[in-house]
Task: inverse folding
């Protein structure tokens, strides 16, 4: 279904933007998109800063000129309007479990991987000044330690929050696919993480 | 109202635990609490790790031995069961706005303030090894830059997400009150942030 009263400011390379693209794909929704060139710091121009003073993508602009920012907030807006399939869970306990796993995927995987990338990769120098090598190393270690925790949690369940695919898995896959630019190798032996990653990567939404 | 089928693992000094305590106070809810001594690393013991493998407070334990972790996930659970007063917003757009502001308060204020604390304060050495002074400085700068953005956003509205107090304000106050241990002075001239902080601090929940 095409949604025409909004525009999504997007970057093909930004994992936070990919989270929203995957979410929309899982819902069967499409919005007009406008590409923002992060390498050219288009997100820091006065024009873009007036849309989002925190200068990031994704940013959703409505036809009335108002905006909604932050990947998970944009996803929640579409969840509220188009509740099928449920990607934030159903019922009090499952909704809370999805929130827990979405936050764990973000705080303990997505963020340390992103920090390792931003503080080492030459292409990230423009985004992260100064790059601090010691901080990259700390985060690489945390990402690896937490991957082992995710592996134990995924034993015996198909998805992070249980039987149902959710936004937590979207955050998880975006983090796993960001290991490569962060130059972190997925360790051998994490069989549950590997099975989960393969299953998520096989969904059509992974190409979004 | 007392909730008896759960226990909340808590630390008086942990700002993430305070977020849940304030949320419960705003809802008029009370739960049994168990104190975890973070300075003694009780959160890293095998017993506690079996409750929460990511080793943090707050952690909610149910009578059946299952657990729910992450401050915002615990808050969402109580919101679903006890929806009055609404602290995550009502309706699609407002719920999304609350999510956006809760995330902005967390990502752009709470986190940089916490990083500045963890990477400078002698008492945080046990939690953050190695402490990286350069990273503390970067985060101090970001916290100050973002405080100015929050000040502009709060012009003409009582609360972060608009007319209604929400979980975003709870995260915001916990971040502001963490400026002192992080040794960051709230700059002069941020009149909207100051008015907002004074109003939040005057609510009974601020003492929770």
Result:
């Amino acid at each position: 279904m095409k949604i025409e009263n909004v525009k999504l400011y997007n970057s093909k390379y930004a994992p936070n933007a990919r989270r929203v693209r995957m979410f929309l794909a899982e819902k069967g929704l499409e919005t007009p998109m406008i590409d923002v060139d992060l390498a050219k710091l288009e997100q820091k121009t006065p024009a873009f800063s007036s849309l989002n003073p925190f200068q990031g993508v994704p940013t959703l602009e409505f036809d009335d000129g108002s905006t909604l920012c932050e990947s998970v907030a944009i996803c929640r807006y579409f969840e509220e309007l188009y509740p099928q399939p449920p990607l934030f869970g159903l019922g009090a306990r499952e909704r809370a479990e999805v929130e827990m796993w979405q936050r764990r995927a973000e705080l303990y995987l997505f963020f340390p991987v992103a920090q390792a990338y931003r503080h080492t990769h030459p292409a990230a120098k423009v985004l992260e000044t100064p790059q601090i090598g010691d901080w990259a190393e700390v985060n690489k270690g945390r990402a690896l330690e937490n991957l082992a925790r995710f592996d134990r949690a995924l034993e015996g369940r198909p998805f992070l929050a249980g039987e149902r695919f959710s936004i937590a898995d979207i955050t998880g896959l975006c983090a796993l696919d960001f290991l490569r630019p962060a130059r972190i190798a997925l360790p051998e032996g994490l069989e549950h993480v590997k099975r989960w990653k393969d299953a998520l990567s096989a969904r059509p939404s992974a190409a979004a």
Remarks:
- Chain B touches chain A at residues 53-54, 68-70, 72-74, 76-77, 80-81, 91-93, 95-97, 99-100, 103-104, 107-108, 130, 132, 134-135, 138, 146, 149, 152-153 (CB under 8 Å).
